[in-house]
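Appendix B.2, paired examples.
Example (i):
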Amino acid sequence: MRNNKLQESIIAAVLIAIAVFLLNPFNWWMPSNVVMLIAAGLAAVFAIYASFAWREQAQDEREHMLRSFSGRIAFLAGSGMLSIAIIVQAFAHQVDPWLVLALSGMVIAKIAGLWWAEYRH
């Protein structure tokens, strides 16, 4: 169990490091277009792997419950952050369509997942 927590911590740290490198929040470096393209590709591939492929097989009911709970927390955190970003940008009269699309996609996927789960079980 301790090894899994270490792996999860390392994956989270690597994902944060790639995101910080990609965003360059303090303009510490001036990367070329090629470096930014490679960083964006690396961030996308790593995020897809960490989100969809890594550790998706639950072994028992407890692991299923923990995955459901962590998924719920992740959904609430993501939708909360997107909602706050939409509100802040609405006050500035410049709402980014990607924020609205991402929040709408999350809500639609949640509803579709509930319908599918009710249909299957």
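Example (ii):
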Amino acid sequence: MGVCEYEVRMESKVTHSECSGNRKPEKIHLHDKIKDVDNGWSWLVVSACFTLQAFISATYSTYGIMLRVLTKDLNRSVFQLSWISSISGGGTSAFSHLVGMIIHKKGHRTVVLLGTVLTAGGSILSIFAVDHYLLYFTMGVMNGIGLACVNMSSLIIIYDYFYLKRAVAMSIANAGLSVGNFIFPYVVNYLIEEYGWRGSSLLMGGFFLQGLCCCVVFNKQDSATLDALLIKDKLDIQKTEEKIQKKTTSLLKDFLFYRCLISQFLIGLCGYIFIIYLPLFCAQRFGENSTVGTFLVSMVGVGSLIGRVIFALIVNKWPDSATLVYAIGGAGCGLCYQLAVLCYSTPLMFIVTIAQGIFNGAWVTMSTMMLAQNFGMERLHLTCGIAYTCAGISTFAGSPLAAKITDLSGNIESAYMVNGALFIISGLVLIPTGFKLVCSSNKGARSAISFINVWITDPVLFI
């Protein structure tokens, strides 16, 4: 169906004969329809997405608390139990593309319904586990697929209900991760103390079922609004389709693209190790009965929220700094891993944890913008798909690798040091590029560009 035929459905005043010539579509028709998308029911959808993102955070941020209890109750090593979070986190990334296809066919409400039932069912069925193998399926596979459904739908639906205020709506929805990261460690820790890990899993499964209320507000958008968005998207696709075909081959020949993939792979390997093993780290350092671990896990959420706001404002003010902010965030997270090993007091650990959350908010927020800045919006879907697939693959190995290092060395400090070093490398590989982009936008810094350009394009000269 052509662009003009979409306009006929939107505006009866525009006839097919008028569109048969070379007249360009009137943008005022698109604006009149699109400007109404960001109001009313759309903000209720954002609140539902915020809640669903908090549910997602409830799983990832509390697994470290569950890990301490599971190692004692099931009498299994950290390495054996680490595969649970690995399967869950890797599965969430691995199934994202499949979930996107299901959303296209069945809609957001059906996908969120499926994801909510799978996530809740995985938590409820976990209470029957007498060994870690059942947990691989319930907490790992079922939660991974369920969270993939909930995560993808709660983010993609923003594009159906918003246009002019998409960035604001997306920021509010993503803030649910930080808020959930702050609240749920206390909730799960209390439930474990009162009812044990099985009772906690049962109650959390019932809590996840509240996501069914969120999917109710995911109504099908009205045809006029969708037509307006489809016309806008169709116009963008017509402008960029030929560019994508010409640039796909050059993308695979771009040395910068491979450095971005290396960065994403290393971040997937190390990105969640800090928060997963933080309760175990604090138990070894401050005592088994210490509640410091729960407190610090929640502080990661606070720091992440602060980081998201601060760095979003920085990049909004200086758009060319997205890659540099992403790289600094990765290197900063790795540095916090190393500093945590040197902290033997709660106040110092508090400072390091807040800093880690802030830097974590930087690279998480800037991941997509970094790819868009370096490879263009017309190739964003392609670069994001490849980059996030690399991160998803490495996520499968991240937690077991850290657990194996912990089992071999007898302490979590070794795992923090190794993963911190890899995290620093993930940022360093892109810092020269980020610095170059910032300098390119600053007329007073032109003198540094030539040196950086040679370092990036031909690093062999400096070996």
